[in-house]
Design brief:
Radius of gyration: 14 Å
Number of helices: 3
Shape: globular
Structural class: alpha/beta
Strand order of the largest sheet: 3-4-2-5-6-1-7
Largest sheet: 7 strands, parallel
Length: 138
């Protein structure tokens, strides 16, 4: 069964993504970062490449995506792995149960929190194992 971890009140989503992806890649895991739209995926991909650590990533619709451990997707049909999903969308991904791990990344804005509460209730009501990590502003 899919394991779900919520990160809430995130002050720096990109920084948290970098930290979590570094850990995943060092353990030879595959990651899909699921964002709202292609422009957001491109921006995050560029940012990950510019960091001091080497985070091999590509857009999920790229021809060589299946060879890359970190994919940035905005449409479900582009997703090519089922290990780890980082959900940065406000909606529950309908395909979440195909993944071993789902990370729900929720900022401090009230609309994000409200959508996150709905997703949390959905997972809880269906018996998924949930961990919750409340982030602290630094």
């Amino acid at each position: 069964m899919t394991r779900v971890r919520f990160y809430t009140d995130i002050p720096d989503r990109a920084g948290l993504i970098l930290h979590l992806v570094e850990q995943a890649v060092s353990r030879q895991r595959q990651v899909t970062i699921y964002v709202e739209q292609s422009a957001e995926a491109e921006k995050l991909s560029d940012w990950l490449w510019q960091q001091s650590s080497f985070i091999p990533n590509t857009l999920a619709d790229a021809p060589h995506a299946e060879l890359t451990p970190v994919l940035l997707a905005w449409q479900p049909e582009h997703i090519r792995q089922d290990d780890m999903l980082f959900n940065c969308q406000s909606e529950l991904p309908k395909f979440f149960s195909r993944f071993r791990h789902v990370f729900e990344l929720i900022g401090s804005a009230e609309d994000e929190k409200a959508a996150g509460r709905q997703r949390y209730a959905f997972y809880r009501d269906r018996g998924y194992e949930i961990q919750h990590m409340k982030m602290q502003a630094q």
